[in-house]
Amino acid sequence: MIRNLALSLVLFLSAFASRACAQNARDVLQLSRIAVSESGFDSEDDHRAILEVLRDVARRMGGVPVSMAAERYSSRVTGAMRPLNLRQAWIAELDLEGSEPSFWPPNGPPWAAYRAKWLAVVSRSRRLLVERGGPGCGAHHWGDAKDAERARRYRWIEVNCGRTKNYFFRVPSDRSRAAKIS
Questions:
Q1: Strand pairing class (141-143; 167-170)
Q2: Fewest CB atoms less than 10 Å from the CB: which of 47, 86, 106, 127?
Q3: Residue-level pLDDT, tens digit, the chain, 182 residues
Q4: Residues 121, 35: contact at Cβ < 8 Å?
């Protein structure tokens, strides 16, 4: 009886650990895809701030995984919705093993030149998802220059998240947060 109970407990914990590992892999993949889409292969400050925004979105969605928040926030590059262009398509095909995306630009540099950069982004995502760091920059949203104009009209506050390629914003109240940038 005790042996059966112990075996059941081991199987339960094994299944739980397996699901947690798969969820972590999905979080890593979706964060990595968005980081490449929004800031290329080498901007750690953008990467960190984007994760901060996605964690805030996940919290506001009731504590869902980061990957679910990512799929809601950037649906076309995460593969949650059909991509609108070839750039979104190759980003949505990026995988954790570094396989060449079928939509990789045929006239661009060879994928082999970017594979190591992609795997470095994946590694950075793993590290950032594990570390809890300090208080962060307080960002709730990010965007480009066009989005920044709209965010200022909403009276969102631009925050400094380091040396970033994107603009990051904090929303002064929950009521204002309902207005979307995109």
A1: antiparallel
A2: 106
A3: 676 655 554 444 444 444 444 469 999 999 999 999 999 999 999 999 999 999 999 999 999 999 999 999 999 999 999 999 999 999 999 999 999 999 999 998 999 999 999 999 999 999 999 987 667 899 999 999 999 999 999 999 999 999 999 999 999 975 444 445 44
A4: yes
Alpha carbons 128 and 52: distance in angstroms, whole number:
10
Residue with tokens 């995502």: 125
Given the structure tokens 């904090």, which residue do they identify? Answer: 170
Residue type, 29: L
Q: What angle do CA 153, 50, 116 make, to 5 degrees?
A: 140
3-state secondary structure of 143: strand
Q: Where are the beta strands (DSSP E) in 52-166?
A: 141-143, 157-159
71-84 pLDDT, tens per residue? 999 999 999 999 99
Coil, helix or strand for 43?
A: coil
Global pTM?
0.83
Nearest CA among 139, 22, 52, 33 for reference residue 147: 139
CA atoms within 13 A on the CB side of 25: 10
- Spatial distance between the Cα atoms of 42 and 87, rounded to a whole number of angstroms: 17
Q: Give 8-23 as a DSSP string.
A: HHHHHHHHHHHHHHHH
Can you tell me the distance from the alpha carbon of 97 to that of 141, in angstroms, rounded to the nearest whole number? 29
